[in-house]
Design brief:
The complex is a heterodimer of chains A (120) and B (151). Chain A is built from five helices and seven strands, in the order βββαββαβααβα. By secondary structure, chain A is of the alpha/beta class. Chain A has a single domain, classed as Transcription Regulator spoIIAA. In chain A, helix 1 packs parallel to helix 2. Helix content of chain B is 39%, strand content 25%. A six-stranded antiparallel β-sheet of chain B has the order 1-2-3-4-6-5, with helices on one face. Chain B has a single domain, classed as Histidine kinase-like ATPase, C-terminal domain (Heat Shock Protein 90). By secondary structure, chain B is of the alpha+beta class. In chain B, helix 1 packs antiparallel against helix 2 and helix 2 packs antiparallel against helix 3. The chains are: A alpha/beta (120), B alpha+beta (151).
Chain lengths: 120, 151
């Protein structure tokens, strides 16, 4: 069974109980891209039954408030199934967006993937 | 549609289409790079532009293809200016819930204006609220450019 959502907007792999998600062909999480990416992320919870999600932002160069909204909704979905959402590898420019909006307080953000895996 | 204005600014008139919005952002980003704006400045301007134009299309024009968005901008060595006008009924920025308050922190929307105000030097919403102007003054870069010219 494939673990990857259709059209490969995300690279998804399992590391134990944790589902690690990398953003691949869409490094820009703006209004246009985030709608489809959001659907793929939600399907990991709603359709594939994943509960522990690690979003690796290593490839992400840019995001706007639409992406933040999707991550908030994703976080609620994860919490509704008693799961956990962790983020890592967020570059300085993008981390600033999280700080401005105070969402760095809402989300569990770790420095790198190794540290993030230990946060579950 | 692209119009060159007498003051050196450029105006785009686009339908309420996110693809068109992206095209404008790319044109402006290219001009900023040609004018030697730094990556961090471009990141902030691009984000503010995205928020302003997407707001105009989604909230202002309600995604109505028949309604236009007007984006007028000017890239100067020391500052960037842009105005975004939609054909909606406008909004009162004071009515936007504070996205930083604890009770609103988990709302999925309502952060656009906050981000614009952070990354730009000046943001003004003109009554009735369907026109927004922003500028970013480049203090450090202006000094650097003057220094470059001395060599």
């Amino acid at each position: 069974m494939s673990t990857q959502p259709r059209r490969r907007r995300l690279e998804v792999e399992d590391n134990g109980e944790v589902t690690v998600v990398n953003f691949i062909d869409k490094k820009i999480l703006d209004e246009q891209n985030i709608q489809k990416i959001g659907e793929d992320l939600f399907s990991l919870i709603d359709e594939l039954g994943r509960k522990k999600l690690l979003l690796n932002f290593g490839n992400v160069e840019y995001l706007s408030s639409a992406a933040l909204g999707k991550f908030i909704t994703l976080n609620k979905k994860v919490q509704s199934v008693s799961g956990k959402l962790v983020m890592c590898n967020i570059n300085a420019d993008i981390f600033e967006v999280f700080e401005i909006t105070k969402l760095n307080k809402l989300f569990n953000i770790q420095k790198d993937e190794q540290t993030a895996l230990q946060a579950f | 549609m692209r119009n060159a204005m007498p003051d050196g600014s450029v105006e785009f008139v686009i339908p309420s289409d996110l693809n068109e919005a992206k095209m404008i952002q790319e044109v402006i980003e290219n001009q900023l790079r040609q004018s030697l704006y730094e990556d961090k400045e471009i990141f902030g301007i691009r984000l503010a532009l995205e928020e302003a134009i997407v707001n105009a299309i989604k909230h202002g024009n309600q995604m109505d293809d028949g309604k236009k968005v007007y984006v007028r901008f000017r890239v100067l060595p020391e500052r960037f200016e842009v105005g975004v006008t939609d054909e909606g009924s406008g909004f009162n920025p004071d009515d936007v819930p504070d996205p930083l308050s604890d009770e609103n922190l988990e709302r999925p929307s309502g952060r656009g204006l906050l981000l614009m105000r952070h990354y730009m030097t000046e943001v003004t919403v003109h009554p009735p609220g369907n026109r927004l102007t922003m500028s970013k003054v480049r203090m450090a870069a202006a000094g650097r450019l003057n220094g470059d010219q001395a060599h």
